[in-house]
């Protein structure tokens, strides 16, 4: 568990200071905390997937060898393929790539179980919320790279459609999802072990 805490702290420390965020200890600490929480929830999801799938199952691959092509059976871990497959909807319904307003009504419930929604929302609230002062607009003189600058941090939150829930609500939901996934992984492992005896 130490690497799941250490590496997000190192990564977030680099990202926070490289993007010239305010030198505010509380804001920095909260950013480290939400990054670490996101890492732990992601690890818990991986543990659930690993516990739910068999260790090795047969899969077929078209192996090309000169001069013939023939299918060969080899052992693969299903979890290696299920991880990215479950990650795509989790990211899609987080509101980062697709606005939550554009998601069809019958699929909007998926955004409430996407832990990246709460991570993304919390990170934006930490960086652009908490009574942040006006952003420093330094426009580049090169017209090829010029971009419009928004000096009001609240405009960023409005454009990104961050919900009105408090930051602590995001932290609470990430903790609940973390605990739920850990218990789910435990019960899946217990069920699988009982099935063998």
From TrEMBL:
<feature type="transmembrane region" description="Helical">
    <location>
        <begin position="45"/>
        <end position="66"/>
    </location>
</feature>
<feature type="domain" description="ABC-2 type transporter transmembrane">
    <location>
        <begin position="77"/>
        <end position="128"/>
    </location>
</feature>
<dbReference type="InterPro" id="IPR013525">
    <property type="entry name" value="ABC2_TM"/>
</dbReference>
<dbReference type="GO" id="GO:0140359">
    <property type="term" value="F:ABC-type transporter activity"/>
</dbReference>
<dbReference type="InterPro" id="IPR050352">
    <property type="entry name" value="ABCG_transporters"/>
</dbReference>
<keyword id="KW-0813">Transport</keyword>
<feature type="transmembrane region" description="Helical">
    <location>
        <begin position="78"/>
        <end position="100"/>
    </location>
</feature>
<dbReference type="Pfam" id="PF01061">
    <property type="entry name" value="ABC2_membrane"/>
</dbReference>
<feature type="domain" description="ABC-2 type transporter transmembrane">
    <location>
        <begin position="5"/>
        <end position="60"/>
    </location>
</feature>
<keyword id="KW-1133">Transmembrane helix</keyword>
<feature type="transmembrane region" description="Helical">
    <location>
        <begin position="167"/>
        <end position="189"/>
    </location>
</feature>
<keyword id="KW-0472">Membrane</keyword>
<protein>
    <submittedName>
        <fullName>White protein</fullName>
    </submittedName>
</protein>
<dbReference type="GO" id="GO:0005886">
    <property type="term" value="C:plasma membrane"/>
</dbReference>
<keyword id="KW-0812">Transmembrane</keyword>
């Amino acid at each position: 568990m130490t690497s799941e805490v250490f590496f997000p702290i190192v990564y977030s420390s680099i990202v926070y200071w490289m993007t010239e965020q305010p030198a505010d200890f509380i804001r920095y600490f909260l950013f480290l905390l939400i990054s670490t929480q996101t890492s732990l929830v992601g690890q818990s999801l991986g543990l659930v997937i690993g516990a739910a799938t068999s260790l090795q199952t047969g899969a077929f691959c078209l192996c090309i060898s000169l001069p013939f092509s023939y299918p060969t059976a080899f052992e693969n871990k299903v979890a290696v393929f299920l991880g990215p497959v479950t990650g795509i909807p989790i990211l899609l319904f987080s509101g980062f790539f697709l606005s939550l307003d554009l998601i069809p009504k019958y699929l909007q419930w998926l955004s409430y179980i996407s832990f990246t929604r709460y991570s993304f929302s919390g990170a934006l609230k930490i960086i652009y919320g908490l009574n942040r002062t006006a952003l420093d607009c330094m426009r580049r003189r090169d017209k090829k790279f010029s971009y419009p600058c928004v000096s009001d941090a609240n405009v960023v939150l409005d454009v990104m459609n961050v919900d009105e829930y408090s930051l602590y609500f995001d932290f609470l939901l990430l903790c609940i999802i973390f605990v739920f996934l850990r218990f789910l992984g435990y019960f899946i492992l217990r069920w699988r072990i009982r099935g063998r005896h």
